[in-house]
Amino acid sequence: MQVTETLADGLRREFQVTVPAAELDSRLVTRLNEMQGEVRIKGFRPGKVPVSHLRRLFGKSTMAEIVQSVISEVAQETITERGERAAQQPDFDLPEEAGEAERVLLGESDLTYKMSYEILPTFELGDFKSLKVERPVAEVSDEEVETELNRLAESARTYTAKDGKSEAGDRMTIAYVGKIDDEPFEGGSDDNAAVLLGSGQFIPGFTEQLEGLSAGDETTITVTFPEDYGATHLAGKEATFDVSVKGVESPDPISLDDELATRVGMETLDQLRDAVRQQIQNQYGAATRQKVKRQVLDQLDEKHGFDLPPKMVEQEFDNIWRQVTNELGTSNRTFEDEETTEEAARDDYRKIAERRVRLGLVLAEIGEKNGIEVSEEEVQRALSAQMRQFPGREQELVQYYQSNPDALAGLRAPIFEEKVVDFLLELVDVTDKTVSREELLKEDEEDAPVGGEAAPAS
Question: In whole angstroms, what is the distance from residue 396 CA to residue 110 CA?
């Protein structure tokens, strides 16, 4: 077997590999001898099938397996002997001519192919102990708690049937059939829809035309779907709705009391108030964590500059770009709607891909040098959290992750990232800064990354 390096350019490595036909044939004979005791063929006693007969029956298929095994072994041995870390699985340029491949499988020709891969860069970690982080902290005010309690009371409001004409704020039960050009359209009908008048929850202008109607009334209203409506086949089109009013209810007064607490699963109003305060604190804590993490990663990014494996960057960019274009398609928006162009967007998201790959490598290096690992228990907790989001499909999810190493790595990666950030926060200089609720949450929305902060390193 001969492995000759033909290119060492930056992080890219290429090799010419030749495996003599005699070596392949030797492996084939060894495997066929093993098969003598395994296969059962009519007319032959167990273990007495001639190797020559096995070669005629299984020679090509077995040689194909051997070729795959040899290719994998050569790649692993080459990388190990050179003390390199491959960024991804190597690429193999195998014989494309059918005749040449056939001769290899028949043991008549040497196996000759090209192997290439990119290696992970080597770099020195910056002095992350010198990082300085300003931790934004927002206090939960009594007013915020009361506002949330009133919102909760509004959502739990009860209604009482009423006679007479409806008005804004009433709840109406209706049956309707939507039509475009006098033809009903899919998803445009309902026999028992609850509509809150004046809420704007339907198409603009829909609920407003229902005000003044009473139970038993029938009417036809006309509306125009917004241009950016999610269902593209309806966007911008005029539609009519034949409506039958089945009932009208007026809202009961809301009150903040123990009865409200009971309706939402608490025992007392004080208990509910404490739960609401804690919920807001958790929301603020998550926002604070995101700000702190962003500062840490920004500074790590600034401290490290090294060449990146192009294929890793390209793969990360493809993942991000697929997400971006899918979101645009789902929302029926264009790059022009986002006040940019596709070319400019590609440049921006490529920079994000480069940042994520760089940070992934830096975090992996920090984790490796400091013994930071993700336990199986932590992975199982993450998997359980995934399963809770898809009740009834638990077994399907388990099988998916068991058979998909990349998906399982996707569960580990964010856990590892958070553990490395926690490790760094124990060492860096952190100063608290009190900010307003608006400042904390507004920054959180503006700084939201695409798909995560760091790409998992191999």
Answer: 44
